[in-house]
Specification:
- The protein is mainly β and about 950 residues long.
- It has a 22-stranded antiparallel β-barrel. It has a five-stranded mixed sheet with strand order 8-13-14-11-12.
């Protein structure tokens, strides 16, 4: 029996070898430069592959010769190549660059639709070969070179993507999709950066669409869309391995430099032209960039923050606050990345007006806090594991079914109202999909485990467990008055016996608060609750799309539908619960229809498009998303224009967010949330009203508490238009320019409130910082916001393979302030605030607007991936303008300085080993900068990597 089996196996193997040909060759440009990422498909089959970095390819097929190869790559005219016995191992293809109007559908992210020449929303595409030729450390980091994109780096692994204003470290208005799946946290409503992204080796493209994209991709994408597509195991086969070593935190006395390592592999195999599998894994370990800004915190809550004009009723004309850096010379020192000393989080004591020493009467004095790195206690160590696996089956030439698993795991620091540490984030996504040329059906689920703790609240708790604020202030006052010593000496006296970072007592108290949920009491610590939260929420999403083929000659009609179900699971640590103690669930439904037609009128091609979508969240009113666009191509010139109305549903946290009693934090905008926070019975006061009273309680008007209406949250809405132009001139100069304008209403913004800790205290509680807490209440802003801007990008190909690339984006945020009744508000001088810059001091004096975006940014890159047949280089400079930044409770209000970075890479191809050696760095001159207030300060990142690509193919 064994002999027959062995004979049969040998026969099958011999038959397969005899039946299969391996096509081979290379693809180059008109300038005879190798082209990577070119797709080659055997006509009439689903057998395909893509060229490697040197333009070469190998394509097994069981089709007999002669046959036809279909060759395509974005930006080049497609070619049909006849393959015969004489050339099947030495196929040479030369592609000609061109600008085309591709087809446009309301497709999901898993179907990369090239709209770069047609979409009214500018489209930028980053491809794997472009990342390999850039200084970027990873595909996600390559976004920082993309037109219109602003990154806010909270930590090494957590970078928030922002576009067209309203920048945020937790931006839920930019939708991030991976193979069609929403990458955002189901409960918190924002993406966790690259912690749960694709492994680098499996990224094929990243498509960036600044501006409203809701008509195509549903509600929430009102600022933009990032869609990442993984590599097909049919097109990219074999084993790829990458190893990267590097260093950061260079020049940090007593801390740096620190090493990091990053390893990954990808294996894909097409068992035949119908069945294929792939598996990917990547692991990164290293040390985070450190948030170490120890200057005094800049916040409008500080007395004397604004320069004012007394002759114009005290209107703000500028900022007079100048941060110090020494707690030994400042009574109310509040370090940006020092915690436990926060002026708006229980770290400050106000001496009474009748205090014995006149120097301390009405004086604010902050406690001595702890550095972020000390509170964390992990020396800034970070880790990240990413993996995915999938099986694919093709029915014929156009229909493919797949099952996939996606995994992300790591630690990170997230910045919102506070800096929060999540030590072991885990997320699984499972997807089933069936797709064809004119349809797809997809179902997936996101299952996550996100537990963490608040760094600032924990530092405060450590201080309070050692010594109460009142006792500490009493000892400080006695030392300062009786001994007539300096501020530093008085602090030293009051700090005697303080828990020192790393000590047994320090670690014991920190761990007790960090490991106990905020709904539970801490064993052994009377009247103390923990500070740990969890978000183990789930998302279940089902969607489909179909283009009616029978109408294709008349009109391209596309219809689609979507259903989402969120299952919140925080155990009451983050979200309000129902009256019976169970968690809330949220259902969202939507559907759309689109009609488009391509018209050829002689030498001119016109493509109009109309679309409308309707979506409904069960807790807010539904809404329509109409869109109209047109693209006109005349020769090498393509003109585009679009108009769209879009909206965004509030995130689960904005609906049901809840902060435990007695501490600061976020509160959702639904009645269930703010009632759980006690805001209906223990009313709070607006910070902007309270600050004036706190400064001059004897002369200022006593502020009125805020009465919350029972009106539900509304969806955020935007109406925007955009015009653009794109061309490829003489096959060398590609340019793309756009002009846009948007108007936003009902934006959900956190309003800063002060809530007395006692319901009977009234406004007098505002005079004692320990008697109230700071809350961020999510509400629809009555204000109208306007964002206007323009962008331009270009690529110019020199001789010998050199390319000069660049992009520039300008954007400005304006606001019309309105009261709750809709009437325009005046500044303090009595002048109406109509379409004023959001950074105007007279505007910020009345409250935050959260635009948080630079007016200007640009990138210039000079590259040559073909310096020789082996060597490649790239040199880039990035610059970002200063920006007015408002965020959180323990962050602040400040002008974040402008910054620039020089990046470079040098690569060497080793074709005999199918590998590439790359040496590079970002921020080469190690000039530390922060992209937002209180965030990690980013320095140089130097690295060397070795990539083996598609071995055993």
């Amino acid at each position: 029996m064994k002999r027959y089996a062995l004979t049969l196996l040998c026969w099958l193997t011999w038959s397969a070898v005899q039946a299969q040909l391996i096509l081979g060759g290379s693809v180059v440009s008109e300038q005879n430069l190798p082209l990577a990422g070119v797709k080659l498909t055997v006509q009439g089959t689903s057998t395909s592959t893509s060229t490697q970095s040197d333009g070469s390819f190998n394509l097994p097929t069981d089709q007999p010769l002669p046959l036809t190869l279909l060759v395509s790559r974005t930006g080049y005219a497609p070619e049909r190549v006849r393959v015969r016995n004489s050339n099947f191992r030495a196929i040479e293809v030369r592609l000609k660059a061109e600008v085309v109007i591709p087809e446009s559908t309301l497709s999901s992210a898993s179907e990369p639709v090239d709209e770069q020449a047609i979409s009214g929303v500018t489209v930028e595409t980053i491809r794997a070969h472009a990342v390999a030729n850039s200084p970027a450390l990873s595909p996600a980091d390559a976004l920082q070179y993309t037109n219109g994109v602003d990154l806010l780096t909270s930590s090494f692994l957590f970078k928030s993507v922002n576009m067209r204003g309203f920048g945020s470290t937790t931006n839920g208005r930019v939708v991030q999709l991976i193979d069609g799946m929403d990458n955002r946290s189901p409960g918190l409503g924002f993406g966790f950066g690259n912690v749960a992204g694709l492994p680098d080796l499996d990224v094929e493209t990243i498509e960036v669409r600044p501006g409203a994209s809701s008509a195509q991709h549903g509600p929430d994408a009102i600022l933009g869309l990032i869609q990442t597509t993984s590599k097909s195991p049919f097109d990219y086969q074999g084993l790829s391995v990458q190893a990267r070593l590097g260093a950061n935190n260079v020049g940090k006395p007593g801390f740096g430099p620190k090493m990091y390592s990053d390893y990954g592999f990808r294996y894909a195999l097409a068992l035949n032209e119908r069945f294929a599998i792939k598996v990917n894994f990547q692991r990164l370990t290293g040390t985070d960039f450190i948030a170490d800004d120890y200057a005094d915190r800049s916040t409008t809550a500080r007395p004397g923050f604004f320069a004012t004009d007394a002759g114009r009723s005290g209107i703000a004309t500028g900022i007079t606050f100048r941060p110090g850096i020494d707690p030994n010379t400042s009574f109310d020192y509040d370090g940006v990345n020092i915690y436990g000393d926060d002026v708006n989080n229980g770290g400050v004591f106000r001496y009474p007006a009748t205090y014995a020493n006149t120097t301390l009467q009405n004086q604010f004095v902050t406690r001595t806090g702890y550095r972020e790195l000390d509170v964390l206690g992990n020396q800034g160590k970070v880790f990240n594991n990413r993996a995915n696996a999938s099986v694919h089956y093709r029915f014929g030439n156009s229909v493919e079914a797949s099952l996939g698993w996606y995994f992300g795991n790591g630690n990170l620091i997230e910045t919102s109202a506070f800096r929060n540490y999540i030590p072991d984030y885990r997320r699984h996504q499972f997807k089933a999909e069936l797709k064809g040329d004119n349809f797809y059906i997809r179902a997936y689920t996101t299952q996550q485990q996100a537990e963490g703790w608040n760094i600032g609240q924990t530092a405060r708790a450590i201080n309070d467990r050692w010594k109460s604020l009142n006792q500490w202030a009493t000892e400080f006052g006695l030392a300062y008055v009786e001994n007539k010593v300096s501020i530093g000496d008085a602090r030293f006296t009051a700090n005697r016996g303080r828990y020192l970072p790393g000590s047994v007592d320090f670690n014991r108290v920190r761990n007790a608060f960090a490991t106990t949920f905020n709904t539970d009491s801490i064993p052994g610590l009377p009247r103390a609750r923990g500070l740990r939260f969890r978000d183990n929420s789930q998302l279940w999403h089902y969607e489909g799309m179909y283009t009616v083929a029978s109408l294709s000659e008349l009109v391209e009609l596309t219809v689609g539908a979507s259903f989402r179900r969120y299952v919140l699971a925080s155990g009451g640590t983050l979200f309000a619960r129902q009256a019976n103690g169970s968690e809330y669930t949220i259902a969202e439904t939507g559907g759309y229809v689109q009609a488009a037609k391509t018209l050829a009128l002689g030498a001119v091609t016109i493509r109009p498009l109309l679309a409308v979508r309707y979506d409904k969240n069960q807790f807010v009113n539904g809404g329509f998303t109409p869109r109209a666009s047109v693209a006109v191509q005349a020769g090498i010139h393509v003109f585009r224009a679009s108009w769209q109305s879009a909206f965004r549903n509030p995130s689960p946290q904005q609906l049901f967010g809840l902060t435990p009693a007695g501490i600061a934090g976020d509160v959702g905008g639904l009645r269930a949330a703010y009632r759980a926070a006690g805001l209906d019975t223990n009313r709070a006061y607006r910070q902007s009203d309270a600050v004036t009273y706190q400064r001059n309680p004897s002369t200022a008007t006593t502020p009125q508490s805020l009465t919350l209406s029972n009106d539900p949250l509304q969806t955020e809405t935007v109406r925007s238009w955009e015009v653009g132009y794109k061309a490829l001139i003489n096959g060398k100069l590609a340019i793309d320019a756009s002009l846009f304008s948007s108007r936003y209403t009902n934006l959900i913004t956190p309003e800063v409130l002060y809530q007395p800790l006692s319901a009977t205290a009234g406004a007098t509680a505002l005079l004692t910082p320990a008697s109230y807490r700071t809350l961020l209440l999510n509400r629809n802003s009555p204000n109208d916001f306007f964002v206007r801007g323009a962008s331009v990008s270009f690529d110019y190909n020199f001789a010998r393979g050199y390319t000069l690339s660049g992009n520039f984006t300008h954007q400005v945020g304006l606001v019309t302030l309105r009261n709750a009744a809709g009437a325009v508000r005046n500044d303090l001088s009595g002048t109406p605030i109509v379409q004023r810059p959001t950074s105007d001091p007279a505007v910020t004096q009345l409250g935050r607007t959260y635009f948080n975006s630079p007016a200007n940014r640009y990138t210039i890159t000079l590259s040559n991936p073909y310096l020789t047949n082996r060597l490649g280089i790239a040199l880039a400079y990035r610059w970002t303008d200063r920006m007015w930044y408002e965020q959180g409770i323990t962050q602040g209000d400040v002008w974040v300085p402008a910054w620039g970075s020089i990046d470079a890479q040098f690569s060497c191809k080793l074709p005999e080993f199918k590998s590439v050696l790359k040496l590079g760095g970002t921020n080469l001159f190690n000039t530390y900068y922060a992209q937002g207030y209180g965030l990690a300060r980013v320095g140089a990142m130097y690295y060397v990597s070795l990539t083996f690509d598609e071995l055993f193919k």
